[in-house]
Specification:
The chain contains six helices and nine strands; from the N terminus they run ββαβαβαβαβαβαββ. The protein has helices at 43-53, 71-78, 91-104, 116-122, 142-150, 169-174; strands spanning 16-19, 29-32, 61-64, 83-88, 109-113, 128-133, 153-163, 177-185, 188-195. It has a seven-stranded mixed sheet, with helices on both faces. A two-stranded antiparallel ribbon has the order 1-2. Helix 3 links the parallel strand 4 and strand 5 (109-113). Helix 4 packs parallel to helix 5. The chain starts with 15 loop residues before the first strand and ends in a 7-residue tail after the last strand.
C-alpha cells in the first residue's frame, strides 16, 4: 500500500502486521514496517472488496501496482489467482514482500522492484483480469494511474481504486471507467470499476 504523510492518513504509520482474511493463507501475518505513511488497506475494506469480486479467483491474472505491505496482492493469491504481480519501488518494502513470498511459497506471485507509473506503459504481456490501485493519496497520481492501468486491464476485467475521496461518473468516464461498487470506511473510499466498454454488461 502507498506511503502518505501522517496528516492524510487515518492513523499514523507504525510497525506492526496485518493478517490475510481469506483463502489458502487465511490468518497468515504480513509485516508492516515502520515506513513513513505506510497505510495497508483496512481489513473491513479488503473483506468487502473480495466479497464484491467473489471468494475464488482461480484463473485470474492480477496486478497490485502500489503493493506496499502486499496485503491486496497476497490476498488475491491466497484466493487462487493464477498470477499476481506486485509492483513496489521502496527497497525495504520489496525485501519484505520477497520474504513473505518465500515464507508462503507463493509461486503465483511475482515481485517487480519498480515505479508503477514507469512499469505500466512498458508492460507488453497479456491483460490482467484485476488491477489493484492504491497510489499515495497526496501525490496527485489517481488519474495518471487510472489511465496507465486501463491499457493493461482486460475489457471484461475489474479495477480497484482506493482514494481519499469519491470519484464521480464524469471523472471516471474521462479515464475510461464506470463505477460498479463503492464503499467509504473512515477517510478511505474504495471503488470497484469496470472499463467503460464493458458497462453494458453490468
Amino acid at each position: 500500500m502507498p506511503r502518505t504523510p501522517a496528516a492524510r492518513t487515518v492513523t499514523p504509520s507504525h510497525a506492526g502486521e496485518v493478517r490475510l482474511i481469506g483463502g489458502r493463507w487465511k490468518r497468515s501475518k504480513l509485516p508492516v514496517p515502520a515506513t513513513p505513511g505506510l497505510r495497508p488497506t483496512p481489513d473491513r475494506v479488503r473483506e468487502t472488496l473480495f466479497n464484491w469480486l467473489g471468494q475464488d479467483l482461480s484463473g485470474w491474472r492480477c496486478l497490485d501496482a502500489f503493493a506496499g505491505s502486499g496485503a491486496l496482492g497476497f490476498e488475491a493469491a491466497s484466493r487462487g489467482a493464477t498470477e499476481v504481480v506486485l509492483i513496489e519501488r521502496d527497497a525495504t518494502l520489496v525485501r519484505g514482500l520477497r520474504a513473505v513470498q518465500a515464507r508462503l511459497d507463493a509461486q503465483a506471485v511475482r515481485i517487480e522492484a519498480a515505479d508503477a507509473l514507469a512499469w505500466l506503459p512498458r508492460y507488453g504481456g497479456p491483460p490482467f483480469d484485476l488491477v489493484l490501485l492504491d497510489p499515495p493519496f497526496d501525490a496527485g497520481l489517481f488519474e495518471l494511474a487510472l489511465a496507465a492501468a486501463r491499457r493493461v486491464l482486460a475489457d471484461t476485467g475489474c479495477l480497484y481504486l482506493e482514494a481519499d475521496h469519491t470519484f464521480d461518473a464524469a471523472a471516471l468516464k474521462a479515464c475510461g471507467f464506470t463505477l460498479y461498487r463503492h464503499l467509504r470506511a473512515g477517510q478511505v473510499h474504495a471503488h470497484l470499476l469496470r472499463p467503460a466498454s464493458s458497462d453494458s454488461a453490468a
